[in-house]
Structures are given as structure tokens and as C-alpha cells.
Amino acid sequence: MSAAVTFTTVTCRYGRRTAVDAVDLDVAAGEHVALTGANGSGKTTLLRAALGLHPTAAGTVTVGGESARSGVEWARRRRDVAWVPQRLAPGRFPLLVDELLDSGGHPDAARAAAGQLDVGGLGRRPLHTLSGGQLQRVFLARALGAVTAGARALFADEPTAALDFDGQEQVATLLAKLPVTVVVVSHDRAMTRACDRVAEMAAGKLRVI
Ligand SMILES: Nc1ncnc2c1ncn2[C@@H]1O[C@H](COP(=O)(O)OP(=O)(O)OP(=O)(O)O)[C@@H](O)[C@H]1O
């Protein structure tokens, strides 16, 4: 099942610097949107805010019409939205590949996806020993497990940035088939072509192309 995702005048700051400036974006249930734009334009911060990983100075993000304020609601948001981060969060070592895969809520599906993404044999490896491309594949596999576990949307932050050309095509094809709402930050043509719509951020503001 997929859920609509609605960003309403979302504003985020780092100290006095505004990184996301009153962004409105309606993503229909099941729609796939690519988010592009210059480095530093606010894409990562916007997605992190939707997951409760960065505070909003103003505005709201709803998933399936539900907003999140309390700890319980944010925990539900993180089950509702599978997340493929750009990089490892600092301070979470040493986590093994299998532990990360299992954290998506459906170990069997995540491990099957890891096999499909050619990282099936890495289960006992600490995450910090993986190459950038291997790590991206493992995060994707966990997210696919989360979708099997019931996530209704998937957010991904440059999920193919470290992949070779074949890997970029493979992941774009795989995400295109997902029956959930997708918002993917990407500069990769294979990925933007596979999406229904492209939205571009510039200096914290969003415009739909
Ligand atoms: N931890 C931080 N502390 C202070 N400023 C930050 C921090 N993280 C990001 N910023 C600033 O916020 C703005 C938006 O950053 P963000 O990472 O959201 O951009 P982005 O569009 O995802 O960039 P990229 O394409 O390079 O990944 C930038 O000006 C950046 O320098």
C-alpha cells in the first residue's frame, strides 16, 4: 500500500542559515518524484526533516495524512517511510551488515534483496569496512525489506551516487517497480527518467519542472 506525502511550507535552519525555505510539495500515493538541484540547495535536509532527523522551524510533512509530533508518532513515521541515507550516520559503529539489514523490519526480504543487489555475501562485515557502492546497495536492500514490512513510502538520498553504470540502471529499474510512493534525490539520468516527475531545489526553494 502506498501513501501520499505532503510537504507544507517546510522551513529548516542550521543556526541562522535557512537551508529549506517554505517548501510545498504534494506527492500522490504511488507517485515517484525525483528531487534534483545544486549541491547545498537543501534536498537532504528536506528529506531528513520529513523523517524527524532534522527539526523544522516551520511547516509540516504528512504521510498518508498523518503528521508526527510525539516520539511515538516519529517512530511510526520511520516504519511508514523506508530510508536510504546518503552516508552512514556518525557514531553507530561497529554495526554489521546483517544487523543493518534486519533493522528494516523484514530480515528475510532484506537479505533476499541484498542477494539481488550483489551484496549477499557481506553479512558479517562491519559497515565501515564496505566500499561506498557496497554500502549504498546494503542500505537499499534494508529499505526494500522495510517496504515488504509495510512501509508505504521510500525516501532515498542519492542512492546511486557511488554505483557503477550497470548498478545505476539496476537500481533505477528496481525503484521504478516499487509499489510505494518514492521521493529520490538524484542527479542520475537513469533515475530521473524512471520517475513520474522531477522537482528542482535552488537555494532552499522548490520548483516543479
Ligand atoms: N550540519 C550542518 N550544519 C550547518 N549547515 C549545514 C549542515 N548540513 C547542511 N548544512 C547547510 O545547509 C544547506 C543545505 O544542505 P543539504 O545537505 O540539505 O543540501 P543538498 O541539496 O542535499 O546538497 P548535496 O547535493 O551537496 O548533497 C547547505 O548550505 C549546507 O551547507
TrEMBL record:
This is ATP-binding cassette domain-containing protein. InterPro entries: AAA+_ATPase, ABC_transporter-like_ATP-bd, ABC_transporter-like_CS, Metal_Ion_Import_ABC, P-loop_NTPase. Keywords: ATP-binding, Nucleotide-binding, Transport. Pfam families: ABC_tran. PROSITE patterns: ABC_TRANSPORTER_1, ABC_TRANSPORTER_2. PANTHER family: METAL TRANSPORT SYSTEM ATP-BINDING PROTEIN TM_0124-RELATED (PTHR42734). Residues 5-209 form the ABC transporter domain. It comes from Micromonospora antibiotica. It comes from the Bacteria. One of its GO terms (molecular function) is ATP binding.
